[in-house]
């Protein structure tokens, strides 16, 4: 995979993977985004798979939900290769991620991008901590 585009293999579609993610995953909040992530053995296709959820209860208009989904996806697309992938490859781990929007009002792209950077950095730190945990006797 080269370039910055998102490939189908990077989308989290499996029901079993999603249920495992929400049962065993860890959570991190950078308002207005919440990330639930689960570190696991790496998969051939992609080091990270993700999904984005914008609750209908909070954002009532479909147009606004689509806008927020696009902004979140764009921020993830631009920053995943610099903040998350190198750490995952170094730690020999894969990650499943669910991004959940928390606010009742649509946020600007600048805010979403900044919070996405924070979340991806936290996940990279968690991967490093997980690697050091498993290596110690």
Walk me through the structure.
The protein is an alpha+beta fold. It has one domain (10-124): Ribosomal Protein S5, domain 2, CATH 3.30.230.10. Helices cover 49% and strands 20% of the residues. The chain has three helices and four strands, in the order H-E-E-E-H-E-H. The chain has helices spanning 15-24, 62-91, 109-135, and strands spanning 26-30, 33-40, 48-53, 94-101. It has a four-stranded mixed beta sheet with strand order 1-2-4-3, sandwiched between helices. Strand 1 (26-30) and strand 2 form a beta hairpin. Helix 2 runs parallel beside helix 3. The longest helix has 30 residues, at 62-91. The N and C termini lie far apart (36 Å).
Short description:
With 137 residues, the chain is an alpha+beta fold. The protein contains three helices and four strands; from the N terminus they run αβββαβα.
List the helices and strands and how they pair.
Layout lengths: L14 H10 L1 E5 L2 E8 L7 E6 L8 H30 L2 E8 L7 H27 L2
Parallel strand pairs: 3-4
Antiparallel strand pairs: 1-2, 2-4
CATH class category: Alpha Beta
Distance between the termini: 36 Å
Give a quick account of the main beta sheet: strands, pairing sense, barrel closure.
Answer: 4 strands, mixed
Q: How much of the residues is beta strand, in percent?
A: 15-25%
- SSE order, as H and E? HEEEHEH
Class of secondary structure makeup: alpha+beta
> Strand arrangement, largest sheet?
1-2-4-3
């Amino acid at each position: 995979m080269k370039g910055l585009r998102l490939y189908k293999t990077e989308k989290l579609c499996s029901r079993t993977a999603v249920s495992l993610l929400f049962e065993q995953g860890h959570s991190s909040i950078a308002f207005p985004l919440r990330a639930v992530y689960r570190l696991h053995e790496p998969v051939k296709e992609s080091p990270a798979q993700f999904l984005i959820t914008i609750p209908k209860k909070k954002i009532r208009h479909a147009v606004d939900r689509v806008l927020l989904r696009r902004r979140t996806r764009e921020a993830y697309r631009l920053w995943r290769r610099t903040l998350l992938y190198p750490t995952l490859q170094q730690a020999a781990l894969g990650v499943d991620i669910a991004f959940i929007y928390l606010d009742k009002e649509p946020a600007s792209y600048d805010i979403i991008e900044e919070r996405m950077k924070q979340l991806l950095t936290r996940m990279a730190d968690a991967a490093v901590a997980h690697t050091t945990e498993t290596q110690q006797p």
